[in-house]
């Protein structure tokens, strides 16, 4: 006890190698922590298995009773990955310290890009996320499949550096659609025809010189109606509409209407970029 009658804590931090067996032992006392997030656990496990985990100053925090106050997801990921990892472990914290832990905002991919000096880092991060999912074959009728880990985002940018140029080529979307999604689509369309890719989005977002029988015109019309009606069309409908409009432009086909059916007997297969 200290002079003022309060318990004097002996808090210390050491570097430790956490094995799956050690993680299980620590989690035996994980009695009053927040609910587990399985997707986050698998994301961390993937990073551990891929050798992306680094000693970064984050700590596993244990209270005076040996209970886990912070770090349960890292411990669960260690078990799921069946891979040991290096970390710092802080012991001797007061019970209930969790209430004051982790209240800050987690570092995003945009934050990582910003620290590396990338311009338009938020838009770039979003575009890279879309591109990673595309390359993983996760674009489909529902456009589901999660998000890349930081290391995967950095690797995707390293493999596709020209996506930076698509940001300036697309410019402002006028609130018609996600700028990140447009940037990713421009980059993918550019693999087929870079000049047409730029004129496609310029036409869609400005409305200049559009024929009423063009895919661009009907795609722009759908986006404007969506904005005016505040319908909030999901990406799983906007992106395939963009691809269908693009394919029509590439084939020089006339378009009378533009739609993509996501359910029912006439549900459509997600279009491929031509």
3D structure, described in words:
The protein is of the alpha+beta class. It has two domains: 12-96, no CATH class; 109-250, no CATH class. The protein has eleven helices and four strands. The protein has helices spanning 20-27, 38-49, 72-81, 109-115, 121-135, 150-159, 163-170, 179-190, 194-206, 215-229, 235-250; strands at 12-18, 59-63, 68-70, 85-93. A four-stranded mixed sheet has the order 1-4-2-3, with helices on one face. β2 (59-63) and β3 form a beta hairpin. The longest helix has 16 residues, at 235-250. The mean pLDDT is 85.
Based on secondary structure, the structural category is alpha+beta
Strand order of the largest sheet: 1-4-2-3
**Beta-strand percentage range:** 5-15%
Radius of gyration: 25 Å
H/E element sequence: EHHEEHEHHHHHHHH
Individual helix count: 11
**Which runs of at least 5 residues are low in confidence (pLDDT < 50)?**
none
Spatial shape? elongated
Q: Please give the alpha-carbon distance between the first and last residues.
A: 74 Å
Largest sheet: 4 strands, mixed
User: Taking all residues together, what is the mean pLDDT?
Assistant: 85
| Count of discrete structural domains | 2
Helix content: 40-55%
Could you tell me the number of beta strands?
Answer: 4
Short description:
The protein is an alpha+beta fold and 274 residues long.
Write the layout of secondary structure elements.
Layout: E1 12-18, H1 20-27, H2 38-49, E2 59-63, E3 68-70, H3 72-81, E4 85-93, H4 109-115, H5 121-135, H6 150-159, H7 163-170, H8 179-190, H9 194-206, H10 215-229, H11 235-250
Parallel strand pairs: 2-4
Antiparallel strand pairs: 1-4, 2-3
Helix pairs in contact: 1-3, 2-3, 4-5, 5-6, 5-8, 7-8, 8-9, 9-10, 10-11
């Amino acid at each position: 006890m200290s002079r003022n009658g309060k318990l004097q804590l002996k808090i210390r931090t050491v570097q430790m190698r956490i094995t799956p067996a050690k993680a299980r032992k620590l989690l035996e006392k994980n009695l009053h922590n927040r609910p587990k997030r399985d997707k986050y656990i698998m994301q961390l496990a993937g990073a551990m298995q891929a050798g992306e985990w680094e000693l970064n100053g984050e700590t596993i925090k244990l209270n005076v009773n040996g209970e886990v106050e912070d770090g349960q997801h890292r411990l669960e990921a260690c078990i799921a990955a069946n891979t040991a990892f290096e970390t710092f472990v802080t012991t001797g914290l007061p019970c209930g310290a969790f209430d004051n832990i982790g209240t800050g905002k987690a570092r995003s991919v945009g934050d990582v890009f910003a620290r590396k000096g990338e311009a338009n880092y938020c838009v770039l991060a979003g575009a890279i996320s879309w591109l990673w999912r595309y390359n993983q074959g996760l674009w489909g009728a529902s456009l589901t499949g999660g998000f890349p880990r930081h290391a995967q985002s950095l690797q995707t940018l390293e493999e596709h550096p020209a996506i930076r140029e698509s940001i300036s080529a697309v410019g402002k979307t006028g609130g018609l659609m996600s700028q990140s999604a447009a940037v990713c689509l421009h980059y993918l369309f550019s693999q087929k025809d870079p000049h047409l890719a730029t004129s496609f989005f310029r036409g869609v977002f400005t409305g200049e010189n559009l024929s009423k029988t063009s895919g661009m015109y009907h795609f722009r019309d759908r986006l404007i109606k969506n904005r005016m009606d505040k319908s909030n069309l999901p990406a799983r409908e906007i992106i395939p509409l963009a691809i269908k409009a693009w394919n029509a432009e590439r084939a020089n086909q006339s378009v009378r209407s533009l739609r993509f059916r996501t359910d029912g007997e006439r549900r459509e297969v997600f279009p491929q970029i031509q």
